[in-house]
Amino acid sequence: MPDAQRPLRVAVVGASAGLGRCIGTGLARRGAQVALLARRYERLVDAAEEAGNGAVAVACDVTVAETCQQAIAEAAGALGGLDALVYTTGMGVLAPLAEVTADQWATLFATNVIGASLITAAAAPHLAAASGSAVYLSSLSASYTTPWPMLGSYAVTKSALDKLVEAWRIEHPEIGFTRLAVGDSLGGTGDSQTEFNKNWDPDVLEKAIRFWMENKYMLGGLIDAEHLTGVVHNVIRCGSSGFIPYLTFAPRASSAVKELRKW
């Protein structure tokens, strides 16, 4: 279990935008020493300034093993070790399965699954030394509900991520591995707005949202990013002692259709 006498030392991956940025800055405001990791260094610098509390920006492409090793070494060096890893990186393709290309499948798995394992491999020695923990943001559609039409490829990769977390837990029981299945969220506002769907066709998305709403896949509720950050903070404070292997954070249904269409 992390030393209660000092701040938690946390690496948040995917912290340049969306939930990753919200969680990274939110943990810093709660007193954690945070390293913010993602590909876009300039945005990370802005996020680190927003977070305060000595947060550091570390460039990292999770699809490249060497940069994962370098980034974790830099983060651990700056923080004096690591108590927790939070993996928020994720991407999706909005298309029927029959239209998802081989290149898109490869990119999805490289980011949502392989990248998670590469960064975990780099962080594992540091986490083990601190009896620390690792949290991975997954999706309700990966394990608890049916995949949403047009987002089947995303659900497949998140399901693979869930099994990956279990496999790491079996091989490294000295680390507390948590799979956190999260419901619909827009991330935060401004620079923290999600970019999960930034390359999606707006017209296709509009039709998809209408279909999801009409067929009860989407009930209109949205996860509050600040509440999610609180959940993550409580999980990582446990370390490997009394950790929570599986956790679900779902929104209440509400009339949020207008907000969803701003995606």
Give a structural overview:
The structure is a single chain. The chain is an alpha/beta fold and 263 residues long. The chain has nine helices and seven strands, in the order βαβαβαβαβααβααβα. Helix 2 links the parallel strand 2 and strand 3 (56-59). The N and C termini lie far apart (39 Å). 46% of the residues lie in helices and 14% in strands. A seven-stranded parallel beta sheet has the order 3-2-1-4-5-6-7, with helices on both faces. Residues 254-263 have low confidence and may be disordered. The radius of gyration is 17 Å and the shape is globular. The chain has one domain (9-199, 223-252): NAD(P)-binding Rossmann-like Domain (Rossmann fold, 3-Layer(aba) Sandwich). This is Short-chain dehydrogenase. InterPro entries: NAD(P)-bd_dom_sf, SDR_fam. Belongs to the short-chain dehydrogenases/reductases (SDR) family.
Notable features of this structure?
263 residues; alpha/beta; Rossmann fold; 46% helix; globular; NAD(P)-bd_dom_sf; Short-chain dehydrogenase; SDR_fam; oxidoreductase
